[in-house]
What we know:
The protein is an alpha+beta fold. The protein folds into three domains: 1-29 and 284-306, no CATH class; 52-184, 2-Layer Sandwich (Beta-Lactamase); 311-458, Reverse transcriptase/Diguanylate cyclase domain (Alpha-Beta Plaits, 2-Layer Sandwich). 44% of the residues lie in helices and 22% in strands. The protein contains twelve helices and 16 strands. The protein has helices at 5-29, 33-66, 68-75, 82-100, 134-142, 185-199, 280-306, 324-331, 353-356, 362-377, 399-416, 434-450, and strands spanning 104-109, 114-117, 120-124, 146-153, 159-169, 175-184, 201-206, 212-215, 240-244, 248-255, 260-266, 344-350, 382-385, 390-395, 421-427, 456-458. Strand 13 (382-385) and strand 14 (390-395) form a beta hairpin. 30% of the residues are buried.
Amino acid sequence: MKKNSYIMLAAGLLFLTVAVSTVAYVIFGADSEQIRKERILIAEAVEHAVEDHVMEPVTVARMMCEDANFKSLLQREDEISESEAIEEMRRNLFAIQRRFGYSSVYLISEATHRYYSFVGLNKIIDPQTDTFDTWYSIFVDSGKEFELESSTDEVNRDRLTIFVDGRVEDEAGKLLGVAGVGLELESLQKLLEKYEKEYDIRIDYINAEGLIQIESNGAAIQNNYISGVDLEHANSEDFLYTGNGLGGFTIVKYDKMMNWYLVIRNRGQFEGFGYDFRFFFLEAAMLIIGVAVLVAGARNLRVQSIVGGRDDGEVDALTGLPNRSYFTRVYGEKGTLNTTQYQTIAQFGIDDYEDLSQMPGFDRTVLSVVRSAREIFGQSADLIRWNNSAFVVLLELPIGDACDECKAFCKLVSETGRATVSVGVTKIDLDATLMSNYYRAVQCYYMVRELGGNNVRKG
Length: 459
């Protein structure tokens, strides 16, 4: 039977592409300086996201330890009845819980060993006989001012919790007790899971002994140890990068605030054996598909850029979107928008644009925001890059529906973790000039920015 030459050609091209991409990966992509930098940027993003999540409970615990009411109550315990002490403590702790919503807000008296919580007296702790209470004597004896510990919260149905403990002392430095709050791990685990899925990595926080304190699943917390990680040379200033075999890596950094070590590794390389060759050809196939998608996307952008008679001077070089020159030519800044196609106009901008633009890979952030805009607003909207930091969108929707789509856009951009956006949206008045409509949207946009960004305002 005569072989189909087209099939043979396709097979030959496929084999050649797989071979070239494989060799290129082994020679250039296994552990290049650029790949190291990109992986460390991911580690920095994880570190900042986790610290932002934990910063508030640490601040609240510090505030509790310096609170004059708590110190006074601990010093007056022997002057008032037990019921009065319990009620005063409960009222003060409940005010903190109601404000911040933590699953656990507590204060333990050194003099009476009463464990006060925002619902009243929890128990009288006994570190000598109750294993659940040994943490108290360990923390007190350590002399540390503050400490974070992940454990189960017996008061809150044994949920996994990060406890932030702090020493309460009088003016002479005498220990009065220990105060703190508990942050349920679930929200933090979801944050880690998001980064793990997006970048195909494994994230753990461990103590100096290698015992896992935080991880996305939860089963290994306080149960499993991580070995083979260089903690001796890790510090709080720089990320320690170690390549392991072909494609394997480990990134470690000491987190001073949490007193734990952040450990990031690639999936499939948890024991230091390097690249998993079972996925070798699968990755090559994925590379081919990715290149095809990129080529198709590039062609699509090119087609979009020339539709409607736009020339290169009317196309933004980075995004492929029409620019302000196109907007002026098509709609006319001084004229009215003589069409019933569009009902609303919106302006959005990337928050903290000037600061973010100084960071490596910022172009990818801009393109990510544009992709999110296209995903939410669809192809029927006219999306224009007005200037470096701002974009204009003409929408066919009425103001209410347009506002809902803008809120969905804000949420989607925020979930990517790269940036946030501020959006101002207004109904198009066909009797007013186009620029008058535009400036109403701009005013709403600036009001959102003044209020902190990452929101939508209509006017």
